[in-house]
Design brief:
- The protein contains 25 helices and 18 strands.
- It is an alpha/beta fold.
- It has 3 domains: 67 residues, no CATH class; 214 residues, Tandem AAA-ATPase domain (Rossmann fold), CATH 3.40.50; 279 residues, P-loop containing nucleotide triphosphate hydrolases (Rossmann fold), CATH 3.40.50.
- Strands 14-15-13-16-17-12-18 form a 7-stranded parallel β-sheet, sandwiched between helices.
């Protein structure tokens, strides 16, 4: 029936927000709309004849619309209608799979090569063929394989197979670090590579694939432009490192991705860390892939707290290659608790008292508490990191030998001058580990959240020709290349926010040290995989050491990360992740360095201190 404005009894379209639907009733049907509103948990009527509901709520309760008295005169926004039809089909398929507990098998691993045809030239492992088959058996997909399992190649293969079923374009949203991998796989795996471009102002209209970074989505007009690009021809939307949008509609990246979601014919997400902070992250990711029922299934599965059962329920909805399946040599992970020297401990406890007083009454102010947590993490390494130098990145100037502490010094002066009196036990431990590794010809990757800490360690470790990479590094590739190729460069200093994703160092480095860690479990897991990934030589010994100051926030972080990793490992049914929740404790070795050792290794500091 052809709808005209006069005979439309109910219009259903998108609201002002990307996750809202708006239902507008004809004036003589406003009472019916009020009755309909009662059937939606999130329904809000801000004015007569207009109802707003969450899109997820609408999609889960489509059956409620069957009660509308004039079903033939209901007009849908075309994209929302397509999403509703898609969601209904998904709901039926998801229900059947979850009830049976079986993984999708519509496409088998043996059939994948036939679907890819001779135009696919890339090698595929057995687990990659299995993952491709499972993803092609789903209307939409989620690949939660560990870093290093080749998720980029799997995603490209899924798109290539779908091109034979009418999908013409690919939009990849990911971090900037993924660009190189996508361009490489495109050239490596396809006899006729895609016309693939980085999104910009002057893209070729005939491009088969666009890559855009999450940060770019925040720019005015970008989401609308990409939405038009997705709808111009049947397209696939792929989120690489999809945990970047884990906040869903509460975050800028999630909001943008949810806005693009209905415009794509096929949706796929890739991430090795789908729930770094717990169930809510998983809800938002599944809510993107399968709006409505995807989020509902996660809530139902995890609702009773039985993670083993939840894992079984959710297993048919995603594919995952585990570390064990990669066949990598084992990794040794250990926790070293270091005792703070007297002055350091005194300052830390004084700061703890100040920050505790500041936090009182601000329990719901996440921004304020987040800043306090950062300050405490700094103080657990060295309170001097909190003081302001010529710049906020200025290295701490340690003195060798240390000076005597003046009696009656105020707290601010003690914080500022701490490097003159005591060497941070964490820095001392790093020094000992790097020195020991260097004698054996082993390079070391040292992680710290704070740039000032990295710069300080660069001075302390000067004899080992360190290279430093952080957000302000002008030429990261040159610094990384020096670490890889220079036999005298034994240390790479970086932070997980900069190098936690998109780089492989497993051929050059097999030792990593964490000076500090924050509460981001996903970032910790991602950074671990920089040196422990596919391609390691059999028998390689990989060692991860985490440092924690005794009696500080470090111990709180350790406990919280353990709980998050235990949850994620249980949901994914991955023992390797669960094992990280219980790091092996080993004694510190930095205390074994005597004063002469320190003077020999830190001699260059004398000149800097004068």
């Amino acid at each position: 029936m052809l709808h005209t404005p006069q005979n439309i009894s109910l219009e259903i379209g998108f609201g002002d927000g990307v996750v809202k639907a708006r239902l507008r009733a004809r004036s003589d049907r406003e009472d019916d709309l009020r009755r309909l509103a009662l059937k939606f948990r999130t329904g809000i009527q801000r004015m007569s004849g207009v109802l707003e509901v969450d899109v997820d709520d609408l999609l889960v309760n489509l059956v409620a619309l069957a009660t509308w008295p004039e079903p033939a005169t209901v007009a849908w926004d075309p994209q929302l209608a397509a999403l509703a039809a898609d969601a209904a089909a998904d709901a039926q398929a998801m229900g059947e799979r979850i009830d049976s507990g079986s993984v999708p098998t519509e496409v088998t691993a043996d059939e994948v090569c036939q679907l890819l045809q001779s135009s696919w030239t890339g090698n595929l492992t057995g687990f990659q063929l299995r993952d491709i088959a499972r993803l092609l058996s789903l209307r939409h997909g989620a690949n939660f394989s560990v870093p290093g399992a080749g998720k980029t190649r799997v995603g490209l293969a899924v798109f290539h197979a779908l091109r034979n079923k009418g999908i013409e374009r690919l939009l990849v949203v990911g971090p900037k670090s993924c660009y190189e991998s996508w361009r490489f796989e495109n050239q490596q795996c396809l006899a006729d590579p895609l016309r693939m471009e980085i999104y910009g102002k002057e893209n070729d209209p005939s491009a088969d694939a666009l890559i855009v970074n999450y940060e770019r989505l925040r720019f005015d007009g970008v989401v609308n432009h990409l939405g038009q690009w997705l709808t111009a021809r049947p397209s696939m939307l792929l989120l690489d490192e999809a945990h970047r949008m884990k906040l869903g509609a509460d975050g800028a990246y999630g909001t943008a991705c949810l806005a693009l979601s209905p415009r794509a014919r096929h949706r796929l997400i890739l991430t090795g860390t789908p729930a770094p902070n717990g169930p809510k992250d998983l809800e938002n990711l599944f809510g993107f892939v399968w709006p409505g029922h995807g989020r509902q299934k996660v809530i139902q599965a995890i609702g009773d707290g039985d993670l083993a059962k939840a894992s079984q329920v959710l297993r048919p909805l995603f594919t995952r290659t585990t570390k064990e399946e990669l066949g990598l040599p084992p990794v040794t992970t250990s926790l070293r608790i270091v005792a703070m020297p007297p002055l350091h401990k005194e300052i830390y406890e004084a700061l703890l008292g100040r920050f505790s007083a500041r936090a009182a009454g601000s329990e719901n102010d996440f921004l304020a508490l987040g800043k306090i947590a950062i300050y405490m993490l700094m103080a657990a390494t060295s309170p001097a990191l909190l003081t302001v130098g010529a710049t906020r990145y200025e290295p701490l100037a340690y003195r060798v030998p240390p000076l005597t502490v003046p009696e009656g010094s105020p707290l601010a002066a003690l914080m500022r001058d701490l490097p003159s009196y005591e060497l941070s036990p964490k820095y001392q431990e790093v020094l000992a580990i790097v020195a020991e590794n260097a004698t054996k010809g082993r390079k070391t990757l040292v992680w710290s959240t704070f740039v000032r800490s990295l710069n300080t360690l660069s001075r302390i470790l000067g004899e080992f020709r360190p290279t430093v990479v952080h957000g302000g590094t002008e030429d990261r590739e040159a610094e990384i290349s020096r670490f890889r190729k220079d036999p005298d460069c034994m240390v790479l200093l970086s932070n997980p926010a900069t190098l936690g994703e998109g780089i492989s160092l497993h051929h050059e480095c097999h030792d990593a040290v964490y000076v500090d860690r924050d509460f981001a479990a996903g970032r910790f897991l991602q950074s671990l995989d920089r040196i422990h990934r596919l391609g390691l030589t059999p028998g390689t010994e990989t060692r991860i050491t985490v440092l924690a100051s005794e009696g500080t926030i470090d111990e709180v972080v350790e406990d919280r990360l353990a709980k998050k990793l235990l949850f994620m490992g249980s949901i994914l049914d991955d023992p390797a992740v669960r094992e990280l929740a219980d790091l092996y404790e080993e004694p510190a070795i930095g205390g074994g360095l005597d004063q002469r050792d320190l003077q020999a290794l830190m001699g260059h500091l004398r000149a800097a201190a004068t």
